[in-house]
Amino acid sequence: MDVGLLQTLNTERAARRAAILVSPLDGRPQRLIKHSDSWQDDPLAEALERRFRSGKSGIVEIADGPDLFLTVQVPPPRLVIIGAVHISKALVPMAQIAGFDVAVIDPRGAFASEARFPADILHADWPEDVLNTAPLDPFTALAAVTHDPKIDDYPLISALKSDCFYVGALGSRKTHGKRAERLQAAGLTTSQINRIDAPIGLDIGAASPEEIAVAVLGQIISALRKPTEIGE
After folding, report:
1. Which of 130, 119, 13 is nearest to 74 (CA)?
2. How confident is the model at residue 228 (pLDDT cuts 50, 70, 90)?
3. Which CATH class is domain 78-225?
4. What is the pTM of this model?
């Protein structure tokens, strides 16, 4: 293995950045493809998309060249929940079982208590203070569920600017319309705002907080794992 490429791969891992080491099985030189690179026009684009989504290493067969082994380094997915509400109480254990690192952020002491949430995931502070020390990234999902623009809007803007793989917000279509106006006034583009799933969660007719949590987690997992067409 190329030592320099290995060092770069380790650097990307430490910084929660995804990368794939491409190793021809006939001994030709290896190359490293970072998730942040412009790899969509690469001959391996379709395979890279699938591997970045799945996080699984493996062999790729090439019709006009040697088979390749793709060593995939993808950070563990994170879920940042804005709002220590009833939906969040149900969503936290479900997401942890599904393999997500979870954080709950809410400055409201009446909601953000250790009696309701594990201390190691709870941040009883304003989102801007927490996210300044733990920035969002493309392998993070953000779910804003407070119904309070003073709390939700900043992390939504941060998530869209950080290219989080999922951004969802609680609220009716009317509520989201007003939200979109605020975000546009804050400088976001229409295409960025359209990335927000609102109302949040899959349309399964969920009624209780627990059912809504199932709908939200299903939508998040779909956004993480379901392949998309290159160039979409």
Report:
1. 13
2. low
3. alpha beta
4. 0.83
